[in-house]
Amino acid sequence: MDRRHLLTTGAALGAASTLALPTRLLAAGAPLKVGVLLPRSGVQAGIGQDCQRGVDIAAPILKSLGLPDLEIMNGDTESKVEIARSTAEKLIGAGAQLLIGAFDSGQTTAIAQVAEQKGVPLVINIAAAPQITEQGYKFVFRNFPTAGTILSNAFEQQKAVFAQVGHAPKSVVFMHVNDTFGTAMAGGIGKVMPKFDMPYKIVETIAYDPAARDLSVEIAKAKATGAEALLCVSRLNDAILLTREMIKQRWTPQAVLSMGPGWYEDQYLKTLGKYSDGPLTFSPWYDPKKKLSQTLVAALAKKHPNVNLNTNHVFTFEALLIAADAYKRAGSADPKALAEAIRKTNITDNSSMGPGIMFNAKGQNDKVVDGTVQNVGGKQVVVQPEASATAKAIWPLPAYDKRG
Amino acid sequence: MQGRSLAFSGSHVSAQLYLNVAVSGLLTGLIYGLSALGLSVIFGVIRIVNFAHGEMMVLGMFATLVLFRALGIDPLLSLPLVAAALFAFGYVLQDLVVRRVAHLADHMQFLLMAAVAVMLISVCLMMFGPDAQGAQVSYGFDSFAIGPLLVDKVRVYAGVAALIVSGLLFAFFHYTLTGKAIRACGDNYTGARVVGLNVRRLYALTFGIGTACLGAAGAIMLLLVDVHPYLGPSYTLLAFIIVIIGGMGSLPGALLGGMLIGISEALAGVILQPSLKSAFSFGLLILVLLVRPQGLLGKVAR
Fold first, then answer.
1. CATH superfamily of A148-286+371-402
2. For A96, phi and psi rounded to 5 degrees?
3. For a tag site, which of A314, B60, B78, B206 has the least CB within 10 Å?
4. How many pairs of residues across A and B have Cβ atoms under 8 Å apart?
């Protein structure tokens, strides 16, 4: 070995050892840098900040489970797809070793593209568009059901509820918000519903603007159909508007069957008080009988005393749980090792419904299922599936004009 | 009439439904009209297009919410207080800021008002957070039943309040010396200065009256809609549609435009699809621009 060769080799070894240092340090106990992308401002800000509550309660729980620390790097998608993409790039540029997010399917799709391109694992907390895990991505994982699964579960559980209460509506009017999620669900209903031989017919479909300020016409039209029940896919603000109009227009259908957010959310309960009781929501939820759910309920009650645990908190927390669990098993922050560890996730003592968190070859947890939740006395009560239920469904919807 | 069905678009929609929807649309339109009056007053006199229109109304809604929560004052009773507060805000804004860009090109004025809008959104977000919040009044879920007609009590009160405020505004501009002086400034700026009117003060007064209208509209609107910081832009757009249909600068035009939009949106929701309501408003706007570009009650600019 001549002098030049020796110097080159020495320099190369030095560089290699310097580059390897961060990984070694991480393996020695440094926290994993996790970029949490949420719509913290913009039209979805309320839900983004609700998801953040799942992050707020995570650290002590993960520690009690013997999992390594996470260093949270907050990112705001501003409820916009293009900002979601650029914020994901910025977080990775700032050293994020894993991404989590982002509640909305459109924003999550953009983040998934960045994650795959940069080779940084993304664990999706909430986003139902099926195509996200149908692209053959190697670094994208989702612990949340797809729109198809949500619908199939919803129809199955509706039938279970009808059997439980001994009554089923013969007709429904279907109202849906006219955004990406609402139209995807509306399209899915046409394909999925015929497979379930439902006891009711959809007598009319009413689509409305997600930014609607007033839904009086929509409810007047729905009431005029004479349908026995209301089937809907909505968001929060429109769920409140729909309920107000039903009360004012003196229309209490047999049931409100919701297949989306809005009707179970805390703000719905607080805004409408006694009028919030009764709607049935078929949605991904937590299993109240699982130990981790009880831990989450207690932690949230301590951190945010007036907030009930919900889907947003649970699935955001579970995304962090997946990250910490994978980091522990991988023993390294190397993205490929992390992705490989996430792929082999097998967490059975989780919080959401279903047997646990495990991913198929596409990075999708296809075991996670919906729950049926009914608002009773200002709380969300699980009434289906039977194994997770803590009460029986109340049927029919108590008349709005007889609530004292 | 009850029970008689009209066949339309393959569905049976009763005349009762049309009647209920039309009345509700008319009452909502009156409130839209009141909010658009603010835009029309400011443009009609100062010739500034207020791009922060919706955000100022949202500010009025939040002010009403604070009074409701802190002191338990009904939004309709807090209307004068909120209008006065917004008047002061508008007066100061015009005299300290807007006045200084009045001589600049239109796009510079637009940018200024857009910047004010962004600042108002940020302040509201910082103070009140992103969640939608409403005032739950005791009559919030009540409705009047008149035969087959079911009319939302809140809309009736809100519509009557909008009519009263609009009436006071018309009276002010037509029967008071200050009102006439403001109109003179709008009609002939140079002439107003020549006869010795204090144009600077009158402009500030006008801007204040415009924002006071928004405060009043905000107080009324809080009875119908939950407020959140991002609500403004949609109301700015709606107000533009209304004043263009009614005629830029025309006060009766703004009220007429509001009622037209309210009724037509409501009926379009029944006859077509509810999700096409906004498209119908824009269709109406295009039609008016093609047939009568100055608006229904507007004057041709010379």
1. Response regulator (3.40.50.2300)
2. -60, 130
3. B78
4. 99
